Amino acid sequence: MDVIRILAAIILPPLGVFLQVGIGLHFWLNILLTLLGYIPGIIHAIWVVLRK
What we know:
Helices cover about 85% and strands about 0% of the residues. By secondary structure, the protein is mainly alpha-helical.
């Protein structure tokens, strides 16, 4: 299941975060980071997925 979350985090970062933690602070932060730059959104999403 982690492989699917990591792939989702690379393709669409907010989706990967949503699959891991649901709608919360990290989800909204990731949307903001993805809008500001795609790479920071990916880094944050992978960090959230691998953290747990």
